[in-house]
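Q: Could you predict the 3D structure of Antibiotic biosynthesis monooxygenase?
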Amino acid sequence: MSFVQIIDFETTRTEEMDKLFDEWMQTTTGRRTASHDLHTQDRDRPGHYVEIVEFPSYEEAMRNSEMPETQQFAARMRELCSGEPRFMNLDVLRDADLRS
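A: Sure. Here are the predicted structure tokens for Antibiotic biosynthesis monooxygenase:
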């Protein structure tokens, strides 16, 4: 079963945050272990975002987290946030396709 990391954060520096995400994606091409990413914005709370990142496993997520580029990304992200981001590590227990 896959593994999901949720990053819940607030920022007023969206352009800088977008650039940071783009830089991380570029510098980790071919080495990152994340398989899917959703960058979301809360409609009811301006400046509130939730990043949903999927990995093949917990072990692959931890390997990704240990990469120097990810460590640098996390440090810079904290600087761009209004307050401390919240990280949640979730084991996927059920994955259902609801389109049918």
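Q: Anything worth pointing out?
A: The radius of gyration is 14 Å.
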